[in-house]
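WARN no homologs supplied; continuing
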Amino acid sequence: MPKTRSQKEVMLKKLEEQVSQAKSTIFVRQDGLSAGEEVELRKALRTENVEYAVVKKTLLTKALSAAGVEKDDVKTFTGTVAAAFGSEDEVAPAKVLQVFRKQHDAVKFLGGLVNGSFMNEKETAAFAMLPSKKELLGQLVSVVSGPLRGLASVLQGNLRNVVYALKAIQEQKS
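OK structure emitted
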């Protein structure tokens, strides 16, 4: 049964909110997924606090233009289009979809939207290869703490040498 105009307006409002609040939005073509595979995908996305919805291309075009993104690329999307909205980590939706895409050939990147700039499918695939925010923070901590660890080791070495010298003097006197 077709949706009424008021139902479509409600769907458009919700989609506009999701697009405007998300740090990143990844668009995928997911034709050919079974119901079980789709449940598996939704569960994987939910663990990363990513919203996922199948969207109509016309509503998506209107939602993007309302968010200030004018892109004709949406008209070139083929098949059933789904969107993953990441509100916490920009890379999380792309990473989860990339992992799922390796296991299921039915999922294809169509494009993405990160902080208001539109990416095509190749840019989205490259974006999915970036480290997540948690991984980047871990790398930063490692880089910052490395020299501090080295300094602490050098200072401990001098103290150790003083203790060895004192012990040698004690043994020499006794």
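The first strand starts at residue 24 and ends at 29.
OK
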